Amino acid sequence: MQFINGTRRSGSGAPLSVVAPATGAEIASGPGANAADVEAAVTAAREAFPGWAGLTPGARSDIMHEWARILKTRAEELASVESLNAGKPIRLSSEFDVPGTIDNTAFFAGAARHLDGKASAEYSGDHTSSIRREPIGVIGSISPWNYPLQMAAWKILPAIAAGNTVVLKPSELTPLSSLIFAEAATEAGVPPGVINVLTGTGLEAGQPLVEHPAVAMVSFTGSTAVGKQVAATAAGAVKRVHLELGGKAPFVVFDDADLEAAARGAVAGALINVGQDCTAATRAYVQRPLFEEFVGRVADLMDQVRLGPVEDPETDMGSLISRKHRDKVSGMVERARESGAKIVRGGRIPDHTPEAGAYYEPTLITGAAQSSEIVQQEIFGPVLVVLPFDTDDEAIALANDTPYGLAASAWSRSVFRTQRAAREIQAGCVWINDHIPIISEMPHGGYKSSGFGKDMSAYAFEEYTNIKHVMSDITAEARKPWHEVIFRAE
Ligand code: NAD
To answer: Which of 141, 142, 242 to mutate for ligand 1's pocket (most ligand atoms within 8 Å of CB)?
Structure first.
């Protein structure tokens, strides 16, 4: 279950069992990766680096275009593996995860030829200054389980388009699609060692990867708690770090909003991927005149969402990633209930889904306190909390009142209100009259405790390249005016 130096091989660590969360059935097993596998993968990546970095951007681009083409031919296989391993309805994996990944691959194939910097110029008058944008080296990437394929793509693509090599450690719960993604790269002509995938736990494989002295940069997507540990470890060796962490997106509905659009947007934005989306709508703030009707419409729409087997094209919502994670989600909902919040819909395990699966009903909550856990902390489940507000100032203050800052949305027909929200909400993305869509050309990344650095788009190259200033004398004089600081004028 490891992919090192262009081939699949067994790991040397503790046994790993990969389970389909919707049914509880084991779908793969084998030894996980440990420090010895990290050593082998990092060595392969280090050896592959000079050759890959030395290719012309055009040559890297050609190989990556071929990779995108091969991924298209394996799209169905990828969608069904992703659906099974992550508990996603097949409609979601085949219409969102897989096409998004193919588009991202094609985007970075093109972007590989557009690594630009400032134009050369004579800023001092006596020198020509130019900028070299250089790859960093071996990147240690660590990804989560919620969108396994897309997260692997977001980590690997900009890094290798810029000439780096990568060792990726996906979540131990969802390693299968990352292995296929790397295998397709090799088939397309990406040389062995440029992309390596280690499937293992955070402690057995992730920690040694972050600590490895030949890993020049750590790129991490996951929870804020683990991100802080990763950053602390990397700081010890002054490694560059890119952190994409948790979110708690506000969804602000002003009283002039299109109510139907807002209610539909809230349900889709809260329930996508069973709410296991770092940008999911989790806190809807609704101006008081619309509050009751918004809650009613959201409840009605949630009633229409069909839970079921992930392979059924009629299924709208699949299962959470594990029963352990479901316990966390239901624990937060129970504590909200006990502290006086009203559970308007859901808040329970459905009775018609497999007992060994990890399903949870779409859940709508009102009456929670702004300071409560359910409003402040990431739930990562199909749970939407709706709270009222009175003034625009209050809405902006409430939207900004959590430690997170990944994404947000504002719903209004007034350009003044939406532009104010775009300016004043502290988040890496603010949608106006929508919530969730992403595109390869635009960046994704957080403010505040949601991390720093950007995935996707040409902005991702800022993470994965070093900027070198080259300053060349153009006077050909041995005696330069600035030498007077040392040699007295003669
Ligand atoms: P997690 O933090 O538990 O794990 C993430 C990855 O880190 C996994 O591969 C895990 O094995 C590894 N890991 C755990 N301990 C480690 C350690 N000590 N050293 C190195 N690696 C270690 O997160 P998760 O539960 O897999 O994913 C859910 C979280 O990811 C949520 O908080 C979500 O918001 C976040 N997320 C953020 C974004 C974003 O773009 N900001 C995108 C997707 C998910």
So the answer is: 142
Report DSSP state, residue 386. Answer: E
- CA-to-CA distance for 204 and 311, rounded, in angstroms? 33
Extents of the domains making up the chain: 2-245+450-470, 249-432
- Look at ligand 1, atom 9, and give the residue with the nearest C-alpha: 171
Long-range contacts of 306-309 (CB under 8 A, 24+ apart): 307/350, 307/352, 307/353, 307/359, 307/361, 308/89, 308/353, 309/22
Cβ neighbours, 10 Å, residue 170:
28
| DSSP one-letter code for 97 | I
pLDDT in tens, 98-146: 999 999 999 999 999 998 878 889 999 999 999 999 999 999 999 999 9
pLDDT greater than 90 at residue 5:
yes
Whether the pTM exceeds 0.85: the reply is yes
- Name the architecture of domain 2-245+450-470: 3-Layer(aba) Sandwich (3.40)
Q: Which atom of ligand 1 is nearest to the CA of 451?
A: 41
Residues 6 or more apart in contact with residue 172 via CB below 8 angstroms: 16, 18, 32, 199, 200, 201, 202
* Half-sphere exposure of residue 233: CA atoms within 13 angstroms, side-chain side: 21
Burial class for 281, CB neighbours closer than 10 Å (0-12, 13-18, 19+):
buried
Contact 456, 154 (CB under 8 A): yes
- Separation CA 162–CA 150 (nearest Å): 19
CATH fit for domain 249-432, picks 3.40.50.300, 3.30.160.20, 1.20.950.20, 3.40.309.10: 3.40.309.10
